[in-house]
Structures are given as C-alpha cells and as structure tokens.
Amino acid sequence: DRDVHDPVWWHERILCSTAERQALAHVCRFGLTDALRLHTQEGGLYTWWHYRAGAAFKEAATPGFRNYQEQVIANARVIAKVLSEERGLRVVSGRTESHVFLLDLRAKNITGKEAEAALGRAHITVNKNGIPNDPQKPFVTSGIRIGSPAVTTRGMKEAEMDRIAAFIARVLASPDDERVLAMVKTEVEALCRTFPLYPERQG
Question: What is the pLDDT of residues 98-124, one digit of tens each?
C-alpha cells in the first residue's frame, strides 16, 4: 500500500519483489511495470501456484489488508524499540519502517548462528543474518533478522510484541541455560494457544 510504505518506489518504472511475506502468498517472485502489468515467476512449474498468487494479490487489494499491513509495521516497531531501548541491543538501521529489522548481537557476545539455535529451542523462529562489515563468517554472522508478519497473522498486537521482545531478550541473555529456554518455551506455547492458527476450528 503506497500510503503505508515509503512511496519512493512508486515513481520507478519497474518494481521487483516477492510475495511470500508481504502478500501472504507462497514463494513467488513478481514484477510490476509502469503499465500496471503483473509478471510472476513461481518457485516451480505447477499451475495452481499461479492461482495461489492470484488469490493472495486479490486479498491484498481489500481494505482489510491495509489494516493488516499497518499492524505488521506497528508490531515490528514495538519489538525493535523494546530490544534496543530497554534491552540494550542495537537495531542496525536504528528503527524499522517495514515488517522486519536486523539486530546486532555483538554486545551480547553471541553469534547469529548461536542465537538462532537458542531461540529455536525456545520455539521462537528467527534467521541468522550478517550485519554491515560483519566480522563473522557468512554462515555464522553477528546478527539475527526478526519479522512480525507471522504473529500478526495470528492476531497478535502491540501488547503481545512486548512479551515476545522480552522472550527474545531472556534467551539472548542466557542462550546456554536450558532451564531458561524451557521456561520461555512454555510461555511461548501458552501465548500461541491464545492465538491459534485456525481459530474457526477450535472447540
């Protein structure tokens, strides 16, 4: 939505992007031209993947999807703010204007690879990610990439982001303490039960 994200790229003649996160589609690369023609390149050869991409773009054209986009950005900003201002970690860009941000872990003396594994054991999914001028190897890294679309899709809002940021901070403070990881995992599972993936199928 041009009113939600930075509109600079609307002045370009060609836009290339992916749809699996922002548009809630499967893995899909696409291009938009100034004639507003859509060109997609799927991750395989199956025709039904095109239908799924079409359904995702149709949903993205609804007024409700704008509200979803705004919540995705608000949620990402809360996590970034809590981790940087309250937990002493550095968000590489200083803040986020989108669904994702990059966290520099050097202050915690932990690599991205170690953080990804520790958070995974607590049932929190992030990706290790290199930072600018990263001293670590590409498959080790000094940072992690954190995004908000998945939790936003489940219906979580700013209050839950405060809790999630606290979960992440606790794990990063004690990545080798299995007792801490088990406690965080239990709290993560309890939070997820409050926001089930398919609420219409519950009970």
Answer: 999 999 999 999 999 999 999 999 999
Closest CA to 124 of 171, 89, 86: 171
pLDDT tens per residue across span 60-89: 788 888 899 999 999 999 999 999 999 999
Strand partners, 144: 103, 128
Instruction: For residue 193, report the phi and psi dihedrals to the nearest 5 degrees.
Output: -65, -30
Q: What are the beta bridge partners of residue 30?
A: 17, 40
Rounded CA-CA distance 136/79 in Å is 25
CA 158 vs CA 57, 62, 79, 86, 91: distances in Å:
26, 23, 9, 15, 18
- 104 touches 142 (CB < 8 A): yes
Which is nearest to 65 in space by CA: 31, 101, 24? 24
